[in-house]
UniProtKB/TrEMBL annotation:
The lineage of its organism: Bacteria, Pseudomonadati, Bacteroidota, Bacteroidia, Bacteroidales. Monomer. This is Aldose 1-epimerase. Keywords: Calcium. InterPro entries: Aldose_1/G6P_1-epimerase, Gal_mutarotase_sf_dom, GH-type_carb-bd, LacX. One of its GO terms (biological process) is carbohydrate metabolic process. Its cofactor is Ca(2+). GO terms for molecular function: carbohydrate binding; isomerase activity. Pfam families: Aldose_epim (PF01263). Transmembrane segments: none annotated.
Amino acid sequence: MEQIKNDKLVLTVSEHGAELQSIKDENGKEYLWDGDEKYWNRHSPILFPLVCGLWKDTYRCEGHTYHLSRHGFARDTDFQLIAKGADRVTFALTESEETLKVYPYHFNLAVTYRLDGNKIHVVWHVENTDVRPIYFQIGGHPAFLVPGAKKGEHLQGRLRFDNPAPQRLYGNTGGCITNGHFPVKTDNGVWAFTEESFNDDAVIFDKSQLHHVEILGNDDKPVVTLDFKTPAVGIWSPAGKHAPFVCVEPWYGIHDWAEYDGEFKDKYLMNKLLPGASFMSEYTITIK
C-alpha cells in the first residue's frame, strides 16, 4: 500500500490494480467504500482494456477469437510503482505472457493519483508500444459512501446531474446494452435513487450527456463531486444487497451491443492508438 497526503486529504492506493483504497479528510472521515466482500469486495477498480461486458465474453481481432471477462484484467493485476512524491503517486502496467493470451497488444498503462487541495486528479495514460494500431477502452469505478446510509439498511440517496433531463441505456441483456434511450426523471437535475434503481444493473448514460455529478448530503449540499470528460458514465450500486455506497463511473468505452459479432476494433466507443502514440485523460474527485 502507498499513501499520499496534503493538509486536506489522505489517500491510500494498492499496487494490486493500482486501486484507490481510501479517501480520508483531515479529520479522518472516510469517503470511499471499504470493500466489504459481503456487499462488493472492491473500492475503485481501473477498467482496462475493456469497460463492461463482451457478448458471451468473446471478441474477434485480426482473425483470432479471444475471451475476456467483464471490465478487463487491469483490476486484477499487480502494477509497478514507478514514481511517488508527497502529493502524487504513479503506477504502471505493461503487457505480459498472461495478458497477451487475452489481449494481443503491447502497451503501457500508467495511472496517477495527484492531490490538489481538496481535489483528487485521477490520470490515465495509455501508450501504444506495439508496431500496429492498438484498440482499448478504459474507465473508473469509484465507490463512495452515501451520506446517512448504513450496511444492511435499505439504500436511499440523491445525486445532482449537470443535465436535468438525461436519457439512459439498459445494459442487462447478457451483460450488454440494447438499443433505445429512456428518460431518467430528475427534479431539476437532482435524482433520488434507491437500490431498486439498479434492478436492471447500472444506469448508463452515453453521448456525453453528463460531465459533472454531485453526491448530496441530507441537506442537499454536495459531499463529493466528480468531473469528467468521458463520453459515457455509469451509476451503480448492487441491487438488493442493502449496500451503503454508490459508484459514479467515468468511461471511455461501454458494453457490447447485445448479440454483437463484429470486430473488437469496431465496438461502440472504442479507442485507437497508432504505434508510438499515447492517450491521456483524467477525472477529478472533489471532497467538499
